[in-house]
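Support reply, case 0932

Customer input (verbatim):
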Amino acid sequence: MNRLHPCPAVQDRAASIAPVRIRIRPRWLRTLLAAGGAWFLAGPFHACADQNVSQTLQLRAGWNSVWLEVAPTNPAPSQVLASVPVVSVWTYSERLTATDFIQNPSEPTWNRSAWLSYVPTNLLESIDNNLFAIQGGRAYLIETEADATWTVTGRPAYRPLKWVEGAYNLRGFPIDPATPPTFGEFFGPSPAHVDPATGALAKSYQLQASGQWQAVNEATLVLPGEAYWVFANRASEYIAPVAPRLPAGDGLDFGRALPEIALTIANGRPSSSTIEVRELQRTQAGTALAVAGANADGNTAWTDLPSLTSTPVLGGGTRELRLALRRSVLT
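Our regenerated output:
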């Protein structure tokens, strides 16, 4: 039986100010970081004062397999999907078990009882609705009557998921839409997705508008906001070729008293990469973030985080950024 690892719910957290974006080159992974309650988010999004961001997805008539990267401000399906000509929406329901691989969601033979579903409330079938909240950081199968643009606004949802060994996993990935990688480039550094004997990538499938899942190859582009069935040869926590490692939770949360947090960027590629830390919003008093460095005596020196900071990460290595919060400039 092939299985899907479920996505945990996103906890609410008080908003804060001074968001910054972390960009990693190659530009396959973009993330958002906010001081005082920092969150990562894939995609070239922009933050506003309340830390909300927007994700825009282009839905086609028929079936769509999407990966939602934000936790909607109002998670009610009727509100989140108000602008979409929805036929039905499906997401897997169980948290500790997984689901069979679905070859065709249009066929009645797959195990729909293990999925939460939603249809518009003006339809009689809505009496069977059991999907009452659209959450970030998980995959949805959405069937629409026509092409539509779906924009979801809310808190960034960053929570790395473990891969289920020996199973197909339905999920999306942090991708820069300006330079999407191929499946070969994206999964090449992952031992869980490459056969060590042959070097062949594990099988992956992409949903077509007809509802059929079509196999992809190494040259197929990995698209942002799209969820794929991807087979994992072994258990893994692989996120992307270059990815952040958080000390705890789904962000950098300074709380009420924490003086500093170390953000680690891991480069799983054999060649070096350059990361950029960019602050998107500053307070009127200046930046609220400080970064640790060394003075002439070799002691730690704290300086205001520049609006743009670049630093290399060696292949197979990590780079640690020590960030502190200047509470005196926060309102």
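We compared this against your earlier run and they match. Two observations from our side: The longest strand covers residues 148-156. The first helix runs from residue 77 to 80. Please reopen the case if you see a mismatch on your end.
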